[in-house]
Amino acid sequence: MKHIPNILSSLRIVMVGVFAWLFLSARIPAHYFWALGVFVLAFLTDVLDGFLARTFNWITPVGKLLDPLADKLMAITALVVILIGKAGQSLFWIYLALVILVGVKEILMLIGGMIMLRQRKVAYSDWYGKTATGLFAIGIALTLLSFVFDTIEPWNIAMLSASIGLSYVALAHYARTQLFVPREEEPSAEEEKLFEKFDRLAK
């Protein structure tokens, strides 16, 4: 039962490809609703697996890595396909700047995550990151709707900008409270197996 959240995270990774295909194959405005539906379903699945993991203590080291991986894949994919859809429009350069900011943040998080794995630590999310993720999901949903309703722009850009700004605040918070703080307890047996796999991949 404790692997149910991990199964849901794996399904979200599959949804990334479905979402991208639906968006890029859209031929009329109404088709974007299908992509939006998959995106919303993925977000709700993210909320559900987090709820189950916390409520029933189905938290595993693999889940701590798989869950954010699924989130990041969906977020980056959504931004890239949106950027493709906005090509040639007047606000394209604003979307490009937002994608670059997200890309830089994700690279920094990847570096930090690898450092933490070498320190035998696994990062965990808190309300800074959860709030930024929620606002970002709303911004992406509004941006998808902007392909159907022109009046949504630039409100979607404001929401995306706010979420990305908060994500940098969350990044600094994680660095202060997790990256630069020594681990007090010994890793569990399951965590140690995960660290050993990382060591082998690193070699």
Q: What's the layout of helices and strands?
A:
Elements: H1 4-24, H2 32-55, H3 61-85, H4 92-118, H5 127-146, H6 155-179, H7 189-202
Q: Can you offer a commentary on this structure?
A:
By secondary structure, the chain is an all-alpha fold. It has one domain: Four Helix Bundle (Hemerythrin (Met), subunit A). Helix content is 77%, strand content 0%. Helix 1 runs antiparallel to helix 2, helix 1 packs parallel to helix 3 and helix 3 runs antiparallel to helix 4. The two termini are 33 Å apart.
Name some characteristics of this structure.
203 residues; mainly alpha; Four Helix Bundle (Hemerythrin (Met), subunit A); 7 helices; 77% helix
Question: What number of structural domains do the residues give?
Answer: 1
Write down how many β-strands occur, each being a DSSP E stretch of 2 or more residues.
Answer: 0
Q: Strand-residue fraction?
A: under 5%
**How many helices does DSSP assign?**
7
Q: Alpha-carbon distance between the termini?
A: 33 Å
- CATH class, please? Mainly Alpha
Gross morphology: globular
Task: Please state the average pLDDT score.
Answer: 87
CATH fold-level assignment: Four Helix Bundle (Hemerythrin (Met), subunit A)
- Rounded radius of gyration (Å): 18 Å
H and E string: HHHHHHH
Q: So, CATH architecture? A: Up-down Bundle
Helical proportion, percent range: over 70%
